Amino acid sequence: MLKKIKSFAVCLLGLSIFVSPSLLQAQSRQDCFVIRADGTRLKGKDLTADAKGNLLLNVDDKLKMPFAVGSYRYGFIPKPNEVAALEKLFEEKNYDAVIKNASAVFEKYKYLGWSYVIAALEAESYLTQGKINDARKVISAASRVGGEYREKLNGAIVKLYIADKDFSKADAILKRQLKVADEPTAAQAFCLLGEMAEAQDDKKQAVLEYLKVLMLFEGKKAGETRAIAKSRALKLMREMKDPRIDKIAAYE
User: Fold this and answer.
1) Which of 30, 31, 36, 177 has its CA 20 to 30 A from that of 74?
2) Using alpha carbons only, what angle is made at residue 177 by residues 171 and 178, rounded to the nearest 5 degrees?
3) pLDDT tens digits, residue range 124-150?
4) d(CA 60, CA 157)
5) How many other C-beta atoms are found inside a 10 Å radius of the C-beta of residue 200?
6) What is the pLDDT of residue 95?
7) What ranges in 44-181 are assigned the alpha helix state H?
């Protein structure tokens, strides 16, 4: 699959054709629910967790179901304001603030489905500062707790491997993602392949990977990744004095 997509993207570099794949409709994940040990999902109106990880699901105000640690895979609630605030800080590149606040937010919501997202934000913030061991500790802690959006933590793990120059492990994760990923995760994988190529000082390959994101994905679900890929591609193309830079800059 990776070779076919790479060949397709090479053809697109001439910018003479453009194929837009239809977007997959992702299942909404904004209800409260608990994934039980057998994999079944039980929805409810509200979900709380104690400090040990025991959950209490308010099903319909009449029925409240407890879940002891070990009897479920993970619980989930809609995105808390504190998580959204961390994401905003990260987008603003305020990495010190992310690091300062992430631990408390993680402790509050790690059993409620947001462990991977919070840990990814904190770990990637550490990586921007070259603090690889701190990032590794954060990722290790989150890996022991279940949650939604595993692709977020996988992205941080790949960036950790890239920082460690362990490119074979990073590549293995990304290839697995491309085999089974939905569109947002696949877009993330191509963008990370670009970052890995940059780390190996292969600018042409990095640009190719970033342009795959622009050419193969569109819409809000991959919007953030497309913006990152475009910015990185333009930076490298300027360095290489690539004559197609104006076409890419104008590409939406």
Assistant:
1) 177
2) 90
3) 999 999 999 999 999 999 999 999 999
4) 38
5) 13
6) 97
7) 81-91, 95-109, 115-128, 132-143, 150-163, 167-180
154 burial via Cβ count (<10 Å: 0-12, 13-18, 19+): buried
Model pLDDT for residues 155-207, shown as the tens digit of each residue: 999 999 999 999 999 999 999 888 877 888 899 999 999 999 999 999 999 99
Strand partners, 195: none
- Only one residue has tokens 């099903």, namely 59
Q: Give, in degrees to the nearest 5, the angle at Cα 79 between 227 and 137.
A: 75
Torsion angles phi and psi, residue 22, rounded to 5: -70, 140
- Of 234, 220, 235, nearest to 184 (Cα)? 220
Residue with tokens 């904004």: 30
**C-alpha to C-alpha distances, 201 to 16, 165, 175, 235, nearest whole angstrom:** 28, 12, 20, 14
CA distance 232 to 217: 16
Q: What does residue 39 show for φ and ψ, rounded to 5 degrees?
A: 95, -5
> In the structure encoding, which two tokens stand for residue 117, read together?
């997202």
